[in-house]
Amino acid sequence: MSIRRSSGLVGAASLALILTGCGFSSESGSDSSDKGGTRVFAADNGKITIPAAPKRVVATGYAVPALIEADAPLVGISSWKRGEPMMSKEDLAEYKKLPKVAGELATETNYEAIAEADPDLIVIGVPAPVLGDIDVKRLEGIAPVVAIGPTVPSAWRELSRKQSDAAGALKQFDAAKNTYEDKAAELAKKYKDVLPQLKLGHVGSYGDAAKGTFQREFNGSWGTNIAEDIGAEYYGKVKKAGPGSQSVSEYPSIEELPAAFREADVMTYSVNADGSVPKSVQYVLDSKLWKNLPAVKAGKAFPLRYTEAATYGEAVVTLDAIDKSLAPLLNR
Amino acid sequence: MTAAGRAPRASVTGRAGPQIGLLLGGLLLLTVIAVLSMGVGARHIPPAEVVRALFDHQGTDDHVIVRDVRLPRALLAIAVGAALAVAGALIQTLARNPLAEPGILGVTAGAGFAVTVGSALGLATGQAGELGFAITGSVLASLLVAAVGQRSPLRLVLTGVALTAVLGGVALGMRLMLPDAFDTYRFWSVGSLAGREQAPLALPLAAIAVSLLGALLLSRALNALTLGANVAHTLGAGVGWVRAATLVLITVLSGAATAVAGPILFVGLIVPHLVRRPAGGSVPWMILYTMVLGPILLLVADIGSRVLLPTGEVPVAIVTAFLGGPMLIWAVRRYGAGSL
Question: Is A59 within the bounds of a domain?
Fold first, then answer.
């Protein structure tokens, strides 16, 4: 089916689906399907005709952990070291077994290796600005390409669903989502008398904090969005919102630390998966300004591990880590 | 005391009064700017509060910012500014080349190469690691340049340029292949005074202080060298040891400054030009003036780095580059090409 010729039909089909109460299509980005084994899928790079049930999928970037977790029929993936500590044993074994067709960076895409994998669908999970580093035209000569990259950090929920949908692997995705939501509801109940009454502040380690600055993360950022699901409220908002993560986090001078967190009842900060403190965070923790914060003086500063979760499976690991870190709040 | 040392001193004796006045005026201006710099930043603190924070510390947030963040930063600016400016005056005198600057000895390239290697090996992590590798790299590079180019100023300059090109090329290749090394280097490579307050600065700052003293002691012997090696030798100056000692001082001064703040260009080039006229051709006065004007220039640039953008700080090396170019052009126009 030609995308251009079928646009009217696609619109009509989409409308019909919505009107009949099937909200699935708009959420997934899938606009229509036909009996010829293909469907039109709305991705960052336009409306793409893809197989209705892909058999050989190549995934890169954020799509890697999402599609491994969803048991998609993967034949090649990019390297994704940052997700390794959060993968289950089975997923990690699968991740290590799968052929690597790209490195950690978009510029390290191995086009010949992708062609050799002979995919019928390529799912690229990189942010829109990074898409320019990939020769999408060349990839389109191999298989249909759908780009589904992160926007704001908390959007991993919708994005991982969309990636799983494109790869025809929603069943396992829904199971992981339900597990996460049950766990989050259980913890929200556990902390309901404590967390909703508190104002929290978070020092993050994501991105590149220049010397003399720190990353402050607000609601919806990497270090905060999963804790929000159990009732945490990271107060305040960025001074000047930018695109993507810049709408939920900022990098002020260390001199602004007291003003930023003076009202915080509880402070949290990102640490590595092994519990070690990243150097940008250590710089803040070693500052006398940090030690002067009311929450820190009151002993209410807690490290958070696994703050880079971008799938429901990974987020369950994060929930466990948050529960372990914030447990002392229940005893006060 | 050698004849070489006595002759130039006598030539400037009659002008010592105004020159001392100018030096004291410079010191006063430096003090005022240093206090002002401690009041400027992401959080405005009035000068009176700055003085209270220094002499009557109450532990408030403002006092902690002044004592623990801005005071170390101002002291660092003073030390780095003096080190780079004096190193510039020494290299221009030694190489008898007004366009020479400390980086010409391969100091900056050596430090950058070492930081890249350290990052690639996973050893240059944290401020102490970066500092150690930068110092080691700058010392080794300048020792190599000095060993190869010791026979003549021209050979010294050419060796420095060649080594800088080689180290820069190899380091660039490594950074392109190793993203983690590139990540570490890109922050280090833009000289800045921000966020250094927790770094182990005692040793590099002590080395700078001792070297500044050494530069003053050596400055009178350098006066003779400005007349040429043959004349200096005739006047009784030990040309060989003066050159060797000057190279050591340049290495320590620029190496320590680059290690603690990253590469900051133009200070070593422009400051000696700005003080040449008031120094009246006297190397000792030029060294003294650069010791005061270098810190003033860097403090002003650092204040600018904090207030120029409403969204945050600009690294001070970018401000000095913006200031340095126009100032060099101004110096040439004001004093004529003869100043070069």
Answer: yes
Instruction: Kindly state the average pLDDT of the residues A285-304.
Output: 95
How many distinct structural domains can be found in chain B?
1
Give residue B179's pLDDT: 75
| Residues with pLDDT less than 50, chain B | 1-13, 339-340
Average pLDDT for residues A182-206, to the nearest whole number?
94
Q: Is residue A41 part of a domain?
A: no
Contact A252 B312 (CB under 8 A): yes
Is A140 in the same domain as A198? no
pLDDT at A33 over 60: no
Cα–Cα distance for residue pair A196/A199, rounded to 1 Å? 8
Last residue of a domain, one of A116, A147, A168: A168
Boundaries of domain holding A237: 179-331
Per the domain annotation, does A102 fall within a domain?
yes
What is the strand order of the sheet A38-43 is part of? A30-33, A38-43, A46-51
Q: Which residues pair with A267 in a beta bridge?
A: A201, A301
Residues of B with CB under 8 A from a CB of A: 41-43, 59, 61, 64-65, 68-69, 125-126, 179, 183, 187, 192, 194-196, 198, 311-313, 315
∠B226-B160-B339 over CA atoms, to 5°?
Answer: 40
Instruction: Indicate yes or no: CB of A289 within 8 angstroms of CB of B61.
Output: yes
Range of the domain at B79: 3-9+16-339
Q: Please check whether residues A155 and A203 belong to one and the same domain.
A: no
Which CATH number is B154's domain given?
1.10.3470.10
What is the pLDDT averaged over residues A121-139?
89
CATH code where residue A54 lies: 3.40.50.1980
Residue A332: pLDDT band with limits 50, 70, 90? low
The full DSSP string for B69-101 is IIHHHHHHHHHHHHHHHHHHHHHHHHHT-TT--
Which residues of chain A have a CB within 8 Å of the CB of B64? 288-289, 292
Answer whether residue A20 is part of any domain. Answer: no
Does A240 sit within 8 Å of B313, measured CB to CB?
no
The closest alpha carbon to B320, from B340, B303, B334, B338, belongs to B303
* A13, pLDDT greater than 50: no
Q: pLDDT at position A36, please?
A: 56
Reported ipTM: the value is 0.76
User: Are A303 and A275 within 8 A, CB to CB?
Assistant: yes
